[in-house]
Amino acid sequence: MFLAFVFSQCVLYPHLYTTEEKSDIISTVEFNHTGELLATGDKGGRVVIFQREQESKNQVHRRGEYNVYSTFQSHEPEFDYLKSLEIEEKINKIRWLPQQNAAYFLLSTNDKTVKLWKVSERDKRPEGYNLKDEEGRLRDPATITTLRVPVLRPMDLMVEATPRRVFANAHTYHINSISVNSDYETYMSADDLRINLWNFEITNQSFNIVDIKPANMEELTEVITAAEFHPHHCNTFVYSSSKGTIRLCDMRASALCDRHTKFFEEPEDPSNRSFFSEIISSISDVKFSHSGRYIMTRDYLTVKVWDLNMENRPIETYQVHDYLRSKLCSLYENDCIFDKFECVWNGSDSVIMTGSYNNFFRMFDRNTKRDVTLEASRENSKPRAILKPRKVCVGGKRRKDEISVDSLDFSKKILHTAWHPSENIIAVAATNNLYIFQDKVN
Amino acid sequence: MLSKGLKRKREEEEEKEPLAVDAWWLDPGHAAVAEAPPAVASSSLFDLSVLKLHHSLQQSEPDLRHLVLVVNTLRRIQASMAPAAALPPVPSPPAAPSVADNLLASSDAALSASMASLLEDLSHIEGLSQAPQPLADEGPPGRSIGGAAPSLGALDLLGPATGCLLDDGLEGLFEDIDTSMYDNELWAPASEGLKPVPEDGPGKEEAPELDEAELDYLMDVLVGTQALERPPGPGR
């Protein structure tokens, strides 16, 4: 076993808020750049930020649990009066900005609007005003006989989140991705047909850098599914499509990046061809490696790693749940085939992780080529117990601990996961539960 | 934890029987195809896809990715069901190549009926025309290359608009209007007002066509609504 993960925490979302069912589904999970903070967004438009507690010498076994640091309502449901329809408040993505001062900044987006939030601490407050009394009421100036200098006194720590920018009215279609540029001055937002470039300081205009909307909508055959900036080259970004292709674009080439610099596509395997070939090739997530040398894509059945220098095929392909290949028609019928799974790299780009059904998630070690299936469930989670690898039985005799394909619960899907930037700590969102697993200390 | 049943989300409109054998939908040339004749099997899959398309289009704001994938799957199924029918290649500019048109090329009256009724439904959707986009140098990747393709005629009526219209004041609203919008022959004749929806009306073989009076009517509607999106462009 190349990695042994132990159960650390499980946060049940209904405990934080009301019992409104819709609001409790986690829709995005993201560590910040140091891993100190973990942000989640949910279908109710709320953001919850967890902070890792400092490890104390007294409690060696408590290896830095994540506690709730701040919660706030990021997006509210809106009504578009022109089209007479409601805009969902569900948070599609959260992306952190690198920390530059004492405050934390993050971007959160729903289908239409991106917001920049500032999360800051306040642990002191001024006391001893001259013109106000302790309750804040104005004092009669005639009664003031002496002057004093207000002093800062400690108070209980208060974490407040304030919206600093609202980037609205630039997306006709549903925003699926946001990505902060390495220049830390700009970011991009991508919807089904367009990608816009923003400056953090300017909210009333954006640059359109990709537009794949055909002149006649009737000719539409492909949409943008995900987009991300290169981690180091601020002029480079990639976007993926519903046809299983990835385009790498260089913003120095032209203002409108409809002409790609590189085009990544794997030829279709004729032996696997079916009516559903295109649907299962649709890429649901694309992520640059931390090194910037590779990109990883997730389609319905596989995770692929591409070398930026080789466009005609991926360098690695990992089967996530190939046993579903014979079930595609049923999965088409119940719409599961359209589920959008995300994928993540570990800090050293040696292990990749993605989710599956039945609250399973999978990890692949790129060096040893070993893989493991783990499960995020309360029943299996004893504190500090090592997660037991799971196995799906595809046919024939089912072993004692195996699960048959027909017993899988397709309503329990793990779409969102996150990996700490430098340590082996993972966050797994299972519908309305957030699981945090850490690796076993020797 | 073990033995959780397979949970399915059944769509309300579906009355399909459970699919016992999952292999019959494969291409006829595939070795693993089941005994059921492919034509019959594909018809069920086609019906399912049409239902999905209908359901998707009935949403106030359809999921574009879902819509595109379902339509593309429909194309594949249709192509396999009627391989002999010579589907007319899409010329440029396309001359009213609606979904109904291409499906009419096949001999199945039921198909055309269901698609025609779909388009009738779409005419209810309050679509606001999209100002024409500046064409990219090599064309958007989504453009189909030659060949016949049932088109997403519906999507034009779903022309989106948001609240970003008034950035430049009223003058900006009319800046992008040009005649190419009115040349779009895809507009259904009665996009305004309600029309009773014919449920699987038999023998509906005509594709929606525009005449001069209807075109003028549409122009009045366009100018009158003042609800046109001005997309953000470079430098704005």
Automatic annotation (TrEMBL), chain A:
GO CC terms, sorted: protein phosphatase type 2A complex
Similarity comment text for this entry: Belongs to the phosphatase 2A regulatory subunit B family.
PANTHER family documented for this protein: PROTEIN PHOSPHATASE PP2A REGULATORY SUBUNIT B
InterPro entries: PP2A_PR55 (IPR000009), PP2A_PR55_CS (IPR018067), WD40/YVTN_repeat-like_dom_sf (IPR015943), WD40_repeat_dom_sf (IPR036322), WD40_rpt (IPR001680)
Repeat listed as a keyword: yes
SMART domains for this protein: WD40 (SM00320)
GO molecular function, one term: protein phosphatase regulator activity
Source species: Pan troglodytes (Chimpanzee)
UniProt keyword terms in alphabetical order: Repeat, WD repeat
Protein name: Serine/threonine-protein phosphatase 2A 55 kDa regulatory subunit B
From TrEMBL, chain B:
PROSITE patterns, A to Z: SERTA (PS51053)
Stored InterPro entries: E2F-SERTA_domain_protein, SERTA_dom
Domain SERTA: 38-85
Biased composition (Basic and acidic residues): 197-207
Annotated spans, Disordered: 191-211
Entries under Pfam families matching the protein: SERTA (PF06031)
Domain of life: Eukaryota
Protein name: SERTA domain containing 1
